[in-house]
Every structure is written in C-alpha cells, then in structure tokens.
Write a structure and sequence with these properties.
By secondary structure, the chain is of the alpha/beta class. 35% of the residues lie in helices and 16% in strands. The protein is globular and about 45 Å long. The relative contact order is 0.20.
Length: 195
C-alpha cells in the first residue's frame, strides 16, 4: 500500500557542501514548531546564488546529505538535480505544491534579506510560507511588510556554522568534528574533499 503524501511539508534547499549541524537544527526546529509531517532537503544542481565558486559535484553532495540525515527521519529530494541549468526555488515549489495543508520554505535569516534578488520572489511567497531561523540582532525592520506577513519565525538556538567555513577548516587541516554529523566528517575524509 502506498503511503499518503505529507500534508504539512518543509522544504529546505541549498548547496549543502557540506551539510552541518546548523542545517539539522533548523530543520528539527521547523518540524517541531510548525508540526510538519516531513522535512525534505533539496540540494541544488547549479546554485544560482550564495554558492561556492565550484561546489562539489551533485552526486557527492547527495552522498554527504544522505550521511547527515541518516536516522533523522528527514528526506532528500533530488528533483533539482534532474533539471538543467540553475536551480530556482520557485520552480521547486511548483513541483511540490501537492500539499493541501501547507508548504514552508526553510531559510536562515540571512537568506531572508537576499530573497528580493531571487527569481520571482512574489511567486515564492504565493506558493509557500517562510520558516525563518531567527538570529539575535537580525534587522527585522528591514524585512518588507509583504514578506513579513508570510514569515513564521522559528525560535531556534543560533548556531554560527557555515559550509564555507567548514570547507576552509578542512583545507587548513583543521577538525570539523562536532560541527557536522560523524558520518559526514568520515565521508569528507574518505573522499578527500575540500583539500
């Protein structure tokens, strides 16, 4: 028997190069605060913004993401990997609009300020609510009212981890232990990534 699709779905897009504990904490906070039935991580094939100059190949990032999500109940969707060209959030949300009770796009507060530069921000706001990780000192007043009306602020504990900093740590021979799940750290080492 086929399982019914989730009714309240969180969509978390990104490069995930590598995925880290900040990503997992944001997803868990959204799941709990919004009573989401599922959270789906969607790695971008060609990230149109905020990406490293040359991200790891998509198949490697999917392996890292599956390692990070092992045992969490969160899922990976490779739908952006099957589309050519840049991965646009509005297109992904179009493909996921089957959820009758709600669709949330998970974002960090820094990404919320970048939203006006994304492809079709009004289309994104029409398709999903925004689940945004709050940060101390975040300039909420800079968020346009039309966007703020579509935001559910998540009361997560701020974690200052970025994939860019993790890549730099590995390149410098420094540890990423306790910043990424153990399976991710082992895979980064085994594949010789970011060196």
């Amino acid at each position: 028997m086929k399982r019914p699709r989730p009714r309240r779905l969180g969509v978390f897009g990104g490069t995930f190069d590598p995925p880290h504990l900040g990503h997992l904490l944001l997803a868990e906070c959204a799941r709990e605060a919004l009573a989401l039935d599922a959270v789906v991580f969607v790695p971008a094939r060609v990230p149109p913004h905020r990406a490293p100059k040359r991200p790891s190949p998509p198949d490697v990032r999917v392996r890292l993401l599956r390692a990070a999500l092992h045992g969490t109940g969160f899922k990976v969707s490779t739908l952006e990997l099957s589309r050519p060209g840049p991965s646009y959030t509005v297109d992904t949300l179009d493909e996921m609009k089957h959820t009758p009770e709600g669709l949330w796009l998970l974002l960090g507060a820094d990404s919320l300020l970048d939203l006006p530069a994304w492809r079709d921000p009004d289309g994104i706001l029409a398709r999903a609510r925004l689940a945004v990780a709050s940060r101390p000192g975040f300039p909420v007043r800079k968020v346009p009212a039309r966007v703020a009306r579509r935001v559910d602020w998540l009361p997560n504990a701020p974690v200052d981890i970025s994939s860019r900093d993790l890549r730099r740590r590995v390149a410098a021979g420094r540890s990423i232990r306790f910043l990424v799940p153990d399976r991710v750290a082992r895979l980064v080492e085994r594949l010789g990534l970011y060196r």
